[in-house]
Amino acid sequence: MPDVLVIGGGPAGMAAARAARESGATVTLLESGDDLGGQYWRHLPAQRSDPDEGKWHHGWQRFLDLRAALVADPGCEVVTTAHVWSVDRRDGRPPLVHALVGPPDGGDRTPRTFDPDALVLATGAQERTLPFPGWDLPGVFTAGAAQALAKGERVAVGRRVLVAGAGPFLLTAVASLVRVGAQVVGVVEAADAKRLAKGWATKPWRLAKASHKATELVGYLRVLAANRVPYRTGSAVVAAHGTDRVEAVTVARLTPDWSPVPGTERRIEVDAVCVSHAFVPRTELAISTGCALTEDGSVQVDDRQRTTVPGVLTAGELTGIGGVDLALAEGRIAGAVAAGAEPDARDVKRRAVFREFATRLAAAHGVRPGWRSWVDDDTVVCRCEDVTAGALRSAAELTCSKGLRSLKLTTRAGLGLCQGRTCGRAVEDLLTGVLDPGRTANRPIAAPLRLGELAEHGRTCNREDVP
Amino acid sequence: MSKIRIEVDGRPVEAVAGQSIAAALLAAGRTSWRRTRAGRPRGVFCGIGTCFDCVVTVNDLRDVRACQRRAADGDRVETQEDDRA
Ligand code: FES
Asked: In this complex, do B32 and A138 lie within 8 Å of one another by their Cβ atoms?
């Protein structure tokens, strides 16, 4: 009976764990939060649960069923508050996985090491926010933060809020913001109407099987209408203003390339702005494991969700941004294959349907290079270390440095607390052509840990003894 | 919904059991609680634990992400400034 380890307790990881169990494997499911669900099914904690929780989510019953099945199953160990911080590669088999179990950033968490026969990575995605002047002012949030605070806390990030960026996720954030009582003064979508039509309305029959997505979308548009929220396409927030917090933003019309059209700027008073330009897979663990990435930075998989590392599979946003239905289908396939079984033909079919959806998403809302002109020399790019775009550019020019590492060491970009998680892609993009290609997501420690915890790990885990 | 009380820079702040420290601070009307090396104010940005903008000191332990840590009754929270080089 193979031992399958699944990392990530969102839709993809939960589906993978369940499918692996149904195919006869024993399963351990690691989740960093204190409950399953991931960002998608983020909900109030047990201490203050809401009987109407279902109203906040799509597919809530599906979550409840999955969670109940996993938690009640003696062949599945669910470990919550498990922070995986490193993996040890091994030839021809999945890596050893090291986790700390306990409160986030705590000082005395319990170390655990896992030695699985098969590993499913389902670590999801994070938002990519393009920098613009003032984006580091308090009151500028990612749309995901607005969503997490609304769904997981019932807190509104502001009273007068503008939502801006690209993609349907903006609309889901609006729905949550309205529920917690925020006034949404507008939604600003960077893709223009022409590109949206081309991305979404070409060969519509190919989307027919994903029609519940259209129903969801109509639901969101109703929320906009009912709350009189103006929706503007082909525009972006190109600056945020204020001294200690955001007080207003500048919205400009964009060319199809996302460059601001001069003279179209409008100032809008707000006390919060939520931005979301794209999602990027959280690939730290996949990279540490040695999985090859595709050109767009997602993990390369075959038609059975296998990565280039033997015994390591992946599902969900790690393989490309595609949403919950794709994550669930991929998770089920990865779980079955990890357990040594054949994937269910229905899941394979579903995967094809929702991959089409993912392709549309990228075609309609994908980031365009003109955003770089929003950034002036004084714009902070690396938020942790206060490194500006000007400093980055001049360091690259003055030192004739083409290496990402030396540029990081000269400017300190990407060397702060977040280790380049927030600025990495922007740094890479701003210096395209100047810099040798490389990925900032390559970091040996996947999650922060205390030196004391590391020392403890060194004492308890003599590497020579490890298989 | 049970109330708890935490201390932020020596002042009492009411929170709800299960609330994250970040949510408790936002609900109490604060949008920033940290300064970077250059003195720029920071609060919540990503809300999911990736940006580290929201770190605070909790019960003498530095660099705890306020958006990830649930507030516990009696927690002593202190806002942080990055060390100025
Ligand atoms: S707000 Fe980004 S880590 Fe807490």
From this structure: yes
Q: Are A179 and A200 in contact (CB under 8 A)?
A: no
Question: What is the rounded average pLDDT for all residues in chain A?
Answer: 91
**Encoded tokens for A209:** 């099987």
CA of A235 to the centre of ligand 1 (A): 27
- Which tokens hold the place of A222? 């109703």
Count: domains in chain A: 3
pTM higher than 0.90 for the full model?
A: yes
Q: Does the distance separating the beta carbons of B26 and A418 come in below 8 Å?
A: no
Q: What is the mean pLDDT of residues A12-23?
A: 98
Q: Per residue in A77-122, pLDDT tens?
A: 999 999 999 999 999 999 999 999 999 999 889 999 999 999 999 9
B24, B75 in Cβ contact below 8 A? no
Which residue from B26, B52, B58, B64 has its CB within 8 A of the most atoms of ligand 1, so it is best to mutate? Answer: B52
The tokens describing A113, both together, are 């090491």
pLDDT over threshold 60, residue A465: no
The answer to whether residue A65 sits within a structural domain is yes
Q: Is residue A466 one of the residues assigned to a domain?
A: no
- Identify the structural domains of chain B with CATH numbers, from first to last: 1-79 (3.10.20.440)
Q: Tell me if A450 is assigned to some domain.
A: no
Torsions phi, psi for B8 (to 5 deg): -120, 115
Here the CATH number for the domain that contains residue A64 is 3.50.50.60
- Domain encompassing residue A402: 370-436
